[in-house]
Design goal:
84 residues; Helix Hairpins; 3 helices; 0% strand
Amino acid sequence: MIMNNNSLKKIYNNKIKELILHNHLYFDKSKPKISDEGYDKLKKEIFELENKFPFLKSKHSPSKTVGFKPSKNFLYQMFLAKKI
């Protein structure tokens, strides 16, 4: 099946949106909805699309992201650890 650039962009952007959602659920809410294996598979699919079609890369790509902002829960736990 041959896809045009718009179809590829749509698939890629949907995968990026899904990854952003799972990052939010895991890192901010501490309520993951996907297994580690599923998360890794999703990232791999994004990287493969970017390698095969470099025009797809966006500023939201996991290849351009390093780490995440600590969640409030994490910061609170760090605060408690220092008080003990």
